[in-house]
Amino acid sequence: MSTRRARPRLTPRRRRLVDRLLDDLLELGEAERRVRLSQLETGHPRIACWVSELVAASDQPGEFLNTLFDRAGQAVRDSQVAQELRLPRGTRLGPWRIVEDAGSGGMGTVYRAERADGVFEMHAAIKLIRVHRRGLDERLKLERELLARLDHRHIARLIDGGATQDDQAYLVMEWVEGNTLPQHLQSDVPSLDARLDLFEQIADAVAHAHQRRVVHGDLKPGNVMVTSSGQARLVDFGVGRLLVDGGVKSEHAVRGLTPAYSAPEQRAGEEASTQSDVWALGRILQWLIDSRTSGKSDRLTAISAATEGIARRSDLAAILERACAESPKDRYAGAVQLLDDVQRYRQRLPVKACPATRTYLATRFVQRHWLGVSFGAAASLLLCLATAGALWQAHQATEERDRAALEAARAFTAEQDSLRLANELQQVVEFKTSLFALVDSSNMGIHLREDILARYRQSSVSEDDHRQLELPEPDQLENMLRVVNFTDLARASLEDNIFSTALESIDVQFADQPLVRARLLQTVATSMRTVGLLEQALEPQKQALAIRREQLGEEHLDTLDSMDHMGLLYGRVGRRDDQRQFYQEALNGYRRLVGDEDARTLNAMSNLGANYNARGELEQAETYFRQALSGQLDALGPAHHQTLITTHGLGYMLSLQGRHEEALPYYEAALSGRRDLYGDEHPDTLTAMNNLGGLLIEMGRPDDALPYYQQALDGRRRLLGNEHRVTLQSINNMGHLLSRLDRLDEARPLILEVLERAQVILGEQHPNTLIYLNNAGRLQLQLGQASQSERLYRQAVEGARSALPKRHWHTASFLAGHAGALHELERFADAEDAWLEAHGIFKEALGDSHERTLSTASDLAELYRSWARKSPDSGYQQKSAEWQARAQDESGGP
Fold this sequence. Notes:
By secondary structure, the protein is mainly α. It folds into five domains: about 10-60, no CATH class; about 90-355, Transferase(Phosphotransferase) domain 1 (Transferase(Phosphotransferase), domain 1), CATH 1.10.510.10; about 370-510, no CATH class; about 510-590, Serine Threonine Protein Phosphatase 5, Tetratricopeptide repeat (Alpha Horseshoe), CATH 1.25.40; about 690-890, Serine Threonine Protein Phosphatase 5, Tetratricopeptide repeat. About 70% of the residues lie in helices and about 5% in strands. It is built from 38 helices and nine strands. A hairpin with a 4-residue loop joins strand 5 and strand 6. Helix 7 (about 190-210) packs antiparallel against helix 10, helix 11 packs antiparallel against helix 12 (about 315-325) and helix 32 packs antiparallel against helix 33. The radius of gyration is 34 Å and the shape is globular.
């Protein structure tokens, strides 16, 4: 009689080994597989008992996995769990009384209960857990303190919990009227949009929990209730974790897992995490799209089948693939990022799960604005290529001229040859420098748009042809073309047809002339930066600096000039730490070579002041600005463009400190000087107009600011186009000002326009994009859309924490806005956390008496007043009085 070998414990390490062996065996033919299994049985019998069963069930792996978990659960129930106790109506559990049996699940029986102690009327769901565990009652008390922080409209909260006299645990949860998500989909058959609405609610709830450091651990459709109004409510939050963490671990510890919705690392025995919740959300999304694919074992095949026939299926498939990636590090960073990508998919925006190629971004732009693009794209592309072709011909002519000159130079004697060659190379550099200096993608875009409209108006198409072909009238076409980014088209053509070719020519023709090559590379990098090809400019800029360092050394003016350009470029792409390093190196070098009074040294001081200013380090910024301005006034005069830059920078720094009256004359001087120097339509003049308008708003004079903002916006649209970063700033500023003036209908399209454009052009983490997110959150709050406002503010805060220096005052601004939305939603504890953090940052960065610090103190006073109305005896009224007094004391008020 044989003795059955005991099954070994499947630890995470063994699980990984079993998975690897199974993969190898399934690649073999049947005969070779039997041989290998026999060898495994002989050498490693404890592992072989698992592998052999998995191989035998390989035709139906999903069903076998479910069976495996069922058997494990049954083994526990047989050995650890007593006969299930059915509680009759009227049974008391603490202050609760059982009303009726509401159903059974994998972990226990659910009852509907009511409050029985007369303190207040309330219905609740009581889940009686089929686990006897000593000490679980104490564990429940500790866990409730954490789970009580979950205050979200789509989460059914854990209210209470305890244990019966025979140590059988029970949990008391908020009662949700409605159906489970699977029941809802069977009875209602909602559209894809409605299903995605439900997913957004679920993901938003999970994101809220993760922010409070709570993991669900057992996300699945059955743990989602849908109310009669179509609102999703997530139940059983924290239940799985209570069962796992609370007691003695054994070989078959009850984990309450649902295999189809449990991440690979959970099935391997690891604990639940935010990343396993992301995986489960991905599976829920796949199930919502097509429940028939949820049981398929091959992930990519299942995703492909689920998205079949759906608009933009590649985007949706990419979202599912990232969410359900095998390795946690390959998934979305959190539920917020997954939710954001789903929302981007629904808005026809590029999703983060797809590579951000130019073709992909352009395709999504056309899908959002297909009507306007359909009329303008072909003509604009032809004209753009024609323009680029003309520049290329000029470039080719230059190359022929260079070659002819160099050939002629070789006919002279050695001495004459060297002299002539040096002269010719200098002419080449100067000619090409002037050629690139003329490139302006913004003007190219404007001319393209104007040329298309002119040609259309001059066409011989009759009015009858217009009607028969359904062509737009010229004025209609002009409106349609507003959505076409001609500047981007021109910029892309410049990169492909001019700059890329120029860089290749420089590398080939001047490989043995490193200093000439460095000068040309610097010229190209500067031109690319000027037209907005920022990331593309980094490589030639780095090469120019590296060559000059090697050939000339650190103590040479050309090397320092490249350092200065390097800092400017890093600032434009938002890398402020790198920018400071190069600005500081350039300043130190200029001081050593030409002294403190030289214009280059003074300009470097001003640049470094701007860097400190951008990072919120205002005292250091003021020191550099004042020193630079004093020297520039003496050396260059008040009307010099560098002096005007520093004049404005100092004014801006003063305004950030709340010293608006001191800042005003600097702003006015900068605008007046630029008008005299450049005229009203120059970009620098428009910047000064825009910034003076911003200062007037800070001074409480929004009506005075309106004409400055309007003139700056109109000028930038004409001069730079709608896609330029400074035009985006003007659109944002005008939207913000109109919202301040309660002209919300006029503000809304501007604020939404700038946010959409910035997310594509600048990227999600760019500081300006975060500001636009913040402003969109403020607008939604003004419109009474507190939930949408809270989501936008939350994205701005999360972006600021990763993109900005630690405790930057911009982060505090976003936190304060987020707190306002949370206050409106009556999520008082979350609002308190956000406002307290914001107040601390403002106080540290701007000082006790700054208006932002004082305003946040007043906001906290108002929060505690609201909280006190909800909880009269909680002491919040006293806190409100303390914060109000604090705001008055710090302001110097009575």
